[in-house]
Structure formats: structure tokens, C-alpha cells
Amino acid sequence: MTRKPGSAHGQSGSAARGGVDTAVVAGVTIKRASKVWWPDEGITKGDVAEFYAGIAARIVPWMAHRPLAAERCPDGMLGHCFFHKNFASGLPEDVPRTTIRAKSTGRPVRYVVGGSKKTLLAMVNLGSIAIHVMNCRTESLHRPDWLAFDLDPSTGRFADAARAGQLLREILEEVGIRSYPKTSGGRGLHVFVPLRAGPDQGTVRAFAREIGDRMAARSPELVTMAAVKRRRGDRVYVDTMRNAFGQTIVAPYSVRRRPRAPVSTPLDWDEVTPDLDPARFNVRTIGRRLAGIDPWADIWRHRQALPDLPPGRDEAAETALARTRRTSRPSRRSRAA
Ligand code: ATP
Ligand code: MN
Questions:
Q1: Residues 301-315, mean pLDDT to the nearest whole number
Q2: Domain-embedded: residue 220
Q3: Contact 110/87 with Cβ under 8 angstroms?
Q4: Whose CA is nearest to atom 20 of ligand 1?
Q5: What residues have CB less than 8 Å from 2, skipping those under 6 apart?
Q6: Which distant-in-sequence residues (6+ apart) come within 8 Å of 329 by Cβ?
Q7: How far apart are CA 291 and CA 288, in angstroms?
Q8: Binding site membership of 269 for ligand 1 (Cβ less than 6 Å)
Q9: Ligand 1: which residue has its CA nearest to atom 28?
Q10: Sorting pLDDT into bands at 50, 70 and 90, what band is 103?
Q11: 248 lines ligand 1 (CB under 6 A)
């Protein structure tokens, strides 16, 4: 184990010491910067702050104007973690926030609105490892500007998510839609479709479900739309519920709370192969990749309108649709902390 507490900000030279175990990264004070967040890799909280400061030009555009949620792990990846979205207190006054009423309770939630390196680092200071984003901007919360598919392999094997991803790409191409894959940083695959603003959350979600149903109909041994876990077997679950008001997905370039500190990494479809190890793209290695071609460079030049899917779908798709609609609606997602 190469454990070097405090090495990050000590070696980088870009962070001035602001006090005992405090680093100043891009003008933001990071408390307890030498706290080890990944013991096996010797990655500290200060390292994560430096990582985000270095990658800000890539990640901030994905956070800008969007309500955020943070996955906070004040004691690092092995400690207690929780999702946090109501930032009514605990952040500097000048961090932009917006109040959104929770659909379920009607209570106001003070979301942080992304858009600057400073905001990002203020969240790291609060112990955030991962940054999660909504599919819409604050000015049009009910009109998403991307559609997201979250492919979750029940086997925990990325290879299965990659196979389902290629099927998804093919089915989207058949209806004239271009899509963009990224590693989740976990075992799954996320696929984004940039949207020309217009359709509301429900319309976008209905389209996503229809595509998921087509996947399940075409490859029933590989893909499932079953919201209930025990009905999935070994299949890849296509989660279309990321396309709903108040839901989030991890931001491209966010770090994940997993061994090796993987980063959710935009990919070219040619890279989505069963032998890809998503943890290859991590806090230590991603810099090299960023120096090369950005496979998502043109994403915002390809905002798309969703086509009306032709009626008269094949019967297998109809049956799968009926089956998934009979299962209970997805409950609140839980995550072992
Ligand atoms: P993996 O590839 O391991 O599935 P993931 O990021 O896709 O990684 P999921 O559990 O599939 O993880 O969740 C998808 C998204 O839903 C997350 O990226 C996150 O934004 C959101 N999410 C998951 N769990 C919670 C939670 N407990 N509270 C709030 N949002 C959550
Ligand atoms: Mn997932």
C-alpha cells in the first residue's frame, strides 16, 4: 500500500496551505485535505479537490444551470455515504441555489445550481465524491435537454451492459437517433441523447420506455424492463426513470465511490466492448485520455427532436410492455451506504 497522507496538495504545488490540514484549491478552502478517502490507492480528499479543479473545464458545463445532488462521503469511499440535495445551509452564501418544491411532499428543497469551479469545490469541501445532475436546466425543469438510459447489469458485469448498450445504439439508430455512451464509473453504462428542448418529462420518458421495450422484445435473454429486481434474473435492466422530474444521473467526469476512484467517462461507441474495464478510467489515469479526442465533443451540435415512433409495433414489444406495466412502479432507489 502506498499511503501518503497529504501528498496531493503537497506535491502539486498549486494549492497553498491555508492552515492546519487545510488546502486552498482554486481559491476554495478544503478542510481536512489530507484525509485519506481511498486507503488502497492513497487518494486523499485534497487529491479529489485537485482532480476536480483540473477537470473543471470538462465537468462544469455538465453542471451549469442544473440543479445538483451530491453523494457525500465525509470519511471516504469506505465510510458512510449519503445523497444530499437540500443545501439550505452549510455552503457559502454566494453559491447559487434554487428552490424547487418536492413533488411528493410539497416541501421546498434548496438545490445547488452548478456552473462554476468554485461551486464544485465547495461541494468537495463538504465531502462530496460524486456529483449528480438533473436532465433539465433550472429555467425549464419540465423540459429535459437530454434523455438518459441507465443500463444496469444484474450480473454486475460491465460486459453485459456493453452488449445491451450496442443493442440500444442499434435500435436508436433505426429510428434516426444518435446517442452517446459513458461509463457510469460503476458496472453499468449510461447513454445520453441530447434533445432539442420541447417535449416534457413524461413524453421523453415514454419514448425511452418504448425503446427499452423494443430492446427487451428483440433480445429478451439479455434485456429486461422489469422494475422489480427479482424478475430481472441475469438480464440487464434498462432504467428509464432517470427521465423524471427530480431524478438525477451521475455527471460525466464525476468521480465514483468505488475501488480505484473511477470516473464516469464519455466513450466512443467503438469503445463499448465486453472487455472494457470501466475502472481503467479513474482519477489517476483520466488526464491522459483528456489530452486526446473527446468522443462527446459534438454532442450539443446534435440536439435531436424525438421521432413519433411508428404505430403497429411488433407483438413481442407489446407483450413486454404489458408485462412491465403490470409490475409495481419503481420505488425509491436505495443504496447500501
Ligand atoms: P452503476 O453503473 O453501478 O449502476 P449508477 O450511477 O448508474 O452506477 P444506479 O444505482 O444505477 O447507479 O443509479 C443511477 C442514478 O440514479 C445515479 O447515477 C444517481 O444519480 C441516482 N441515484 C441512485 N441512487 C440514488 C439515491 N439513493 N438517491 C438519489 N439518487 C440516486
Ligand atoms: Mn446504473
A1: 78
A2: yes
A3: yes
A4: 249
A5: 41, 42
A6: 227
A7: 5
A8: no
A9: 83
A10: confident
A11: yes
- Check pocket membership of 186 for ligand 1, CB cut-off 6 A: yes
Side-chain-side CA neighbours of residue 202 (13 Å): 0
Determine which helix (DSSP H) or strand (DSSP E) holds 319, and give its type and residue range. helix 315-326
Closest protein CA for atom 17 of ligand 1: 249
- Residue 230 Cβ inside 6 Å of ligand 1? The answer reads no
Asked whether 35 lines ligand 1 (CB < 6 A), one says no
120-149 average pLDDT score: 97
90 and 187 together in one domain? no
Within a domain: 117: yes
User: Which residue segment(s) compose the domain that 240 sits in?
Assistant: 146-326
| Number of domains the chain contains | 2
Indicate which CATH number applies to the domain containing 74. Answer: 3.90.920.10
What's the gap in Å between 177 CA and the centre of ligand 2?
Answer: 22
Residue 2 lies inside a defined structural domain of this protein: no
Asked if 150 and 58 sit in the same domain, the reply is no
From the CB of 103, is ligand 1 less than 6 Å away?
Answer: no
Task: State pLDDT tens for residues 50-102.
Answer: 999 999 999 999 999 999 999 999 999 999 999 999 998 899 999 999 999 98
Nearest CA to ligand 1 atom 13: 249
Q: Final residue of a domain: which of 111, 133, 155?
A: 133
Same domain, 175 and 278: yes
Residue 2's pLDDT band, with cuts at 50, 70 and 90, is very low
- Nearest ligand 1 atom, CA 248: 20
CA distances from 268 to 1, 87, 112, 298 (A): 34, 35, 31, 12
Q: Which atom of ligand 1 is nearest to the CA of 184?
A: 2
Query: Does residue 316 share a domain with residue 214?
Result: yes
| Residue 63 CB burial class (10 angstroms; 0-12, 13-18, ≥19) | buried
Residue 14, in any domain of the structure = yes
Do 305 and 207 lie in a common domain? Answer: yes
